[in-house]
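quick one before i forget lol
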Amino acid sequence: MAIEGVHGHASRSLQLLLEAYAGARLPDWKVFSSSLRLVRLQPGEVLCRAGEVHPFLYFVHTGLMRAQAATANGHTSTIFFSEEGDILACMTSLAPASARRVYERGLHPRLDDLEPAVEGRSLHTVSAAEQSVLMCGDYRVIEQLSQRHHAWAAMAAAITTIYAMTQQADAIWSRDTPEDRYRSLLRERPNLLSRLTQRDLAAYLNVTETTMSRIAKRVRDDAYDVLDPEDDLPLPPADRGTMAG
């Protein structure tokens, strides 16, 4: 597809999605759409790094993105993946002025956790897990439009709310054992699982690749034990190797 065609299709898809978040037509769409640009990434290519100020909103048109965070001792784990149709943003870069006021007045018991948002710094390093095409928009334009139109303000609030809901769900999910989480991925997100390398999957479940291999083998063996030889059912994926990045 020509670049112009990809840009037009991705822009229209993004508009429909954001208007669904807003629950209304977004006035002055052309003001925002003038900031839109396509971003093409190869596997392993970094979109933004932890600690950077990155006030942009992305729509994943095609491909798969990963967000990773490192602990103080240097251990890196994958926090979430963004698939086609997802909105991707460094949420700490999108902190509203109200969050800054709360921080500056010392009105929250966990001020250290608010500091990155006040400074607009990303908590994650975001990179492409596979070849990806994103539509990028400037969130500062959304902030300006939100001051003029209720629909834009409602849309921005919806993005933040949905992000918080998914993060809470992921936090609950992460309390399960790595093997239980792997089994739930097989049941509930098999399409995502089929796209992950062994390295990506291990980082997502926060285990070593060796441990991940053992978990996958155990689950495959369990599946073989319960299957009838006549059945033609999908089995857990075998190791698929790793990739750079």
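fyi Confidence is low (pLDDT under 50) at residues 231-235, 238-245.
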